[in-house]
Amino acid sequence: MNKQEKRHSWAEPYKIKMVELLKMTTREEREAAIIEAGYNTFLLRSKDVYIDLLTDSGTSAMSDRQWSGMMLGDEAYAGSENFYHLDDAVKKFYGYKYVIPTHQGRGAENIISKILIKPGDIIPGNMYFTTTRLHQELAGGKFADVIIDEAHDPDNEFLFKGNVNIEKLESLIKTAGARKIPYIALATAVNMAGGQPISMENLKALREVSLNHGIKIIHDMTRVAENAFFIQRNEEGYSDKSVSEIVLEICSLTDGATMSAKKDALVNIGGFLAMNDPDIYEEARNLVVVYEGLHTYGGLAGRDMEAIAIGIEESVNDDHIRARIGQVEYLGDLLINSGIPVVKPIGGHGVFLNAKKFLPHLKQIAFPAQTLAAEIYVDSGVRSMERGIVSAGRNKDTGEHNFPNLELVRLTIPRRVYTQAHMEVIAESIESVYSNRENIKGMKMIYEPKYLRFFQARFEKL
User: Fold this and answer.
1) The overall pTM is greater than 0.85
2) What is the pLDDT of residues 431-440, one digit of tens each?
3) Which alpha helices (H) appear in 54-152, and where do they start and end?
4) Backbone angles phi, psi at 74, to 5 degrees
5) What is the C-alpha to C-alpha distance for residues 294 and 292, in angstroms, rounded to an integer?
6) Mind telling me the catalytic residues?
7) 238: containing domain
8) What mean pLDDT comes out for the span 202-224?
């Protein structure tokens, strides 16, 4: 890499062929919109959003190759040719033997939870994810966090905060017994920790533990290419390996995977369940018919499967992933240089604001991250999302709020959508809100749905 490339690591390795015009709103319009949405950015109408950082799920821009592939959709009910293209791509780039398409990642989570989890089981993982934990609980299991302690400290700059605490895992296995642990839930580029990666060294140690105790590793691989980039850049022995090679090695150390293709694979809808065990595959083939569709389409149109197959190949391209993470880090550096408290180091798919430090005068029960996301929207029309007490939900046994150490606002960057100038607008807006932080009041929850409350809960200002 030459000096020019180092200086502009965020530069896009593509050119823009089509644009979508954005709506510019007034502050008065945004204030009315956020009140109507109950101060929940998920309930805003997209037409009222200027720069949308709610999620990177299904919001990426597809390539010309993907769009042309959509025109080759084989919409046969059974045996679609596009399924076999997807099957080939999963085998080539991820190495899993079998694949079951699903409408998105949570469809895969539902199926694997029903197959592997029995009531009373414990599922250790490197930090919870909302839909994953809920499916585990609905199947009768209980999630146990075995991520390293550094992951819960937003100021700790350890490079692999997604790592599993091997000692904590071994202790759990000893206490609960391996028979009560159906699998280890392993996420690459851990979302709730701020997009933090796991190291290959840690994954190899985890694999040794899993083999010693006969426990499977099920991989949440929705951002595996981003994780591979951090290994390539920061872990000894991997600088000369391609992202594609590292992704394949990561997957080879696991037994199966759930995938939301709406992230890494650059599509608007779709996912899959992948595995190496033929018995699990047989059971999944049966269940997917019940919950999704036939095993050769799983709730997807043929054209969607074709776009995923092409997107998988594009996602492991070194130039693509370097620019993708470079843009995220560009925004992160702008905010850090302005003194804004963020999760460090900057992760793969977004910049996470530390709401506890941003709004230190608000108690966590006053929903500081939810409040901050609403304030940013009102200031500029930039939509972000809460990742704190609201997302953490309630304790399954006591019904009380879970109080996570991390109270964050996620600025999630869609892939291949926004420019450097958009990042600067975002940073300026957050700096503006930060300058007025002492005048910001918290909120109370006035409506709470039964499941995954962060999607639909409503609030009002204190």
Assistant:
1) yes
2) 999 999 999 9
3) 64-70, 81-93, 105-116, 130-138
4) -95, 100
5) 7
6) 77, 129-130, 220, 263, 387, 454
7) 64-315
8) 98
Residue recorded with tokens 């017994």: 177
- Helices 224-234 and 243-252, packing angle to 10 deg: 110
In 255-353, which ranges are continuous DSSP H helix? 278-291, 302-315, 318-337
User: Is cis: bond before 414, omega within 30 of 0?
Assistant: no
One domain for residues 234 and 311? yes
Q: Which of 223, 227, 208 is nearest to 161 (CA)?
A: 227
- How many residues are recorded in the chain? 462
Alpha carbons 183 and 172: distance in angstroms, whole number? 13
Point out the domain boundary residue: 315, 346, 369. 315
CATH classification at residue 453 = 3.90.1150.10
CA angle 255, 259, 262 (to 5 degrees): 165
SS3 365: helix
Q: What is the mean pLDDT of residues 11-26?
A: 91
User: Total domain count for the chain?
Assistant: 2
Q: How far apart are the first and last CA of the chain?
A: 52
- For the record, the structure tokens of 241 come out as 């390996």
